[in-house]
Amino acid sequence: MILRAPTPEELPGLSDLCLRSQASWGYDGKMLQAFRKSLTLKPEELETDALMVAEDKRGVAGMVQLSMNTETLAQVKKLYVAPDRLGEGTGKLLYVWACRTAQGTGAEDLLIVSDPQAAGFYEHMGAVRIDKTEPSPIPGRALPCLIHKLQTPT
Prior knowledge:
This protein is of the alpha+beta class. It contains 5 helices and 7 strands. It has one domain (2-149): Gcn5-related N-acetyltransferase (GNAT) (Aminopeptidase, 3-Layer(aba) Sandwich). The protein has helices spanning 11-23, 29-39, 45-48, 90-104, 119-124, and strands at 2-4, 50-56, 59-68, 73-81, 109-113, 128-135, 142-149. The radius of gyration is 15 Å and the shape is globular. Keywords: Acyltransferase, Transferase. Pfam families: Acetyltransf_7.
């Protein structure tokens, strides 16, 4: 498995991967349509955020999008694995990359606003739920927030 930056031409396919991954949680078509805008990668995000693709000889397995909110707070905006690649370690690989990249920029904390069904993955990786939620694209639905404390580089 290699990690590499995506090209602008790949963004529609990566957006589709995000939607397919979200669908694997059992959401219906109406819910997925509500998620579509927030799961669509925009070309300007290649300039403002750090994006990484996990790929092997079988193709793209997943992607992650990392944003710096402040000098000491980074945020995982998206981390999605292709449904047929779940359980292969791709999510862990991308999450570790996000933690190390955030730490390398001086971030002390990594914020994750998670789908409720994915929160367990982030907790397994060391993130802790905080007493805060964020609104989702679906009215009346709140998303759990988690923080991963990053080690200070020595």
